[in-house]
Every structure is written in C-alpha cells, then in structure tokens.
Amino acid sequence: MTNPQQYLNNPNVRKMLDVIASAEGVKHGYNTIFGNERFGNLSSHPNVRKQFKQTDGKMNETTAAGRYQFLKPTWDDTSRRYGLKDFSPQSQDIAAIGLLMQNGALPYVLKGDYQTAVRKSGGTWASLPSSPYAQPKRSQAEIDKLLGGYSSQSQQSYEAQYVDLNALRKKQQPQQQYVDLNTLRGQLQQQQYVDLNALRQNTQSQYVDLNALRGQQQGVLTQD
Question: What residues are annotated to the active site?
Fold first, then answer.
C-alpha cells in the first residue's frame, strides 16, 4: 500500500490541500470544529456533534473537525489505515492525502490537473462544486479563484520524480552522452541535460531525484 506521507512536501499536493481547506472555510485551521469553533487538544479527533440545517431544509448532524473537516467515522477508518496516532497537523495532512488516493484524485493532483481532482473529490468534501450532498457548496468560479490560474496545461507534473539510471542506460545508444529530461518528464519549463557518468559519481543510488535536478542552471552540460 502506498504511504501518503511521501507526498507531504509535493507542491501540487500542498496546493490541493490548501484549496480543500479554503473551500471548507475553516477559520482556525487544524483546530477547527464544524461551525468554525476552535478546539485545542490535537491528541485525537474531538468527536463533537453539531446540528445544522441542510440546503433542502432537513436537519442533520456532523462531527466534522480539523483543517479538512474529517467526520469521526472517516477519521477512524483513515487513521487506522495509515497508522496515525494523533490529530496533529501532519496526521491531518496525511489523512487528507490518503482520501485523495482513495477517491482517485491524487494522480490528477500530481499531474497538476486540479479541475479533474476537484471533480473527483466532491464525494469526499461537501464544499466542492461536484458534491452530491445537500450542503452549501463553493461555485466553480470560487474554486477557479482559489486555484489561482493553475491548470493541467500550465502546471508541471511531479508524478514521476525519479529516473532509474540502470533502466535508462540499457535504452541508451553508445554514442549518447546526455539524457534529455524533457523527454523523460514531458513538461519541463526549461531544457536540461544530465551526464549519467557524473551522476553516478555523485550518488550511491541508481535513482536520481528530478526535482533536485530541476534546480540546476538552464542548459547545463557536463562532459563525460
């Protein structure tokens, strides 16, 4: 089972988590109970029941809490699945990423296709436009504003973060000296080349972190 913790620092994932929290309208972040009341103890889900009127006029109740407004049953299932021992900010982030994995949205988040990710997440978060629940929802225009211009066309993908150098060497022709990361990654914003021999001297692993490589100067060429 994939551990959602590995995506905690992924900028695309952070962006999606911020959108969800903003859509949910939490005023106290990780310490928010439904109705924007604040609670202080993050050792466990507070499990405070709150009544509210649905948009269809019917009364309902909820235990939603935290930055991503987890219902108690949802939190119990997700925390058990991923071994979360408290309701700390990190645990809440991991659980939210886990829910994105479960509803099928995470691959789209990693590609930067936030619109598809938002559509797939409506059954998980009632505030999103695609939600089937009789609760107040954000409009698509509000979500677009929260996304701030991010789109599947403009945002680069972080899905394939590592390159297997051993597999890559097998595919190389003898005369090839450089690896074109645009070919490997698809949508890089600048042309970069990497000398495999130089990489091998600088790492004990057969894998190379492409995010780190993206920080290099544009068009840097290293002689073999």
Answer: 24
